[in-house]
Amino acid sequence: MKRFFSNLNFTVGFVLSSVVVLLAAISLVWTPHEPNLMNADHRFESMSLSHPLGTDHFGRDMLSRVMVGAVKSIIVGLAAVAIGMSLGVLLGLASAYYGKLVDESIMRFADLLFGFPAVLTAILITSVLGPSLINAMLAIGIFYIPIFARLTRAVAMTIWGQEFIAAARASGISEWDITLRHILPNILSPLLIQGTIHFAMAILAEAGLSYLGLGTQPPYASWGRMLNEARTFILLAPWLSIIPGVAIAWAVLGFSLLGDGLRDTLDPKMVRVR
């Protein structure tokens, strides 16, 4: 842990991301007010002891909605990375192991997925299944599959050429056992780094999709949805736009710095010569 926290990026990222996770965890058991409770008598209230971040155009408590929105962002990030990593790693390992026609087919499939950005994929999916948080997760996760597939293939092909793999083959270990016991453990570090960085990007993507009305649906809270609802009142109540915007920037910056710190610490090529 001393090695990790000696890195400034990791330390700052850890603190920022911990605040987001802590807010999300607290919101599961307690929020200052009911996030979806409307109160016309308290519309557009500024910051106060009763409402530390004020209220929106429906009189809903902003702090409570920001806390609940953190849960949505974390769930989407975890789900999207899980989908992209699980399928991407399988495809990448198969590509590196079989090579030739299989490798070429998988890589061309990855190129095809790269041609459909997350927003376009979400539009295609929601046009068939309807807009929802689950469909947004699916769209972002599908977009991540070729990213993890390419990373896994590149690292796995390098490891397959190492001498210890040749020694394992000479000792009679099957190719499948070599993949599970030697290849997969050696690619976990770059996968962890990439997963953390793209976790932050998934939060940003979910906010964008919710802003366009393709993610979390009203009345449930989402940072992107809160931004969309606040744009009409940006002159009357600017805090309605500033608060979710700061929350998105805070979370994305925190997890991005955390990923950069992990890369600096775990990647031997990034270690400085002392």
Structural commentary:
This protein is mainly α and 274 residues long. It has a single domain (9-26, 53-268), classed as MetI-like (MetI-like fold, Orthogonal Bundle), CATH 1.10.3720. 72% of the residues lie in helices and 0% in strands. It is elongated, with a radius of gyration of 22 Å.
Give the arrangement of secondary structure elements.
Elements: H1 2-5, H2 8-27, H3 62-98, H4 100-114, H5 118-129, H6 133-160, H7 163-170, H8 175-211, H9 223-230, H10 239-266
Summed up, what is this model?
The chain is mostly helical. It has helices spanning 2-5, 8-27, 62-98, 100-114, 118-129, 133-160, 163-170, 175-211, 223-230, 239-266.
- SSE topology string: HHHHHHHHHH
Mean pLDDT: 90
Shape: elongated
What do we call the CATH homologous superfamily?
Answer: MetI-like
Main beta sheet? none
Q: Kindly, what is the distance between the CA atoms of the first and last residues, rounded to a whole number of angstroms?
A: 19 Å
Which structural class should the secondary elements be placed in?
mainly alpha
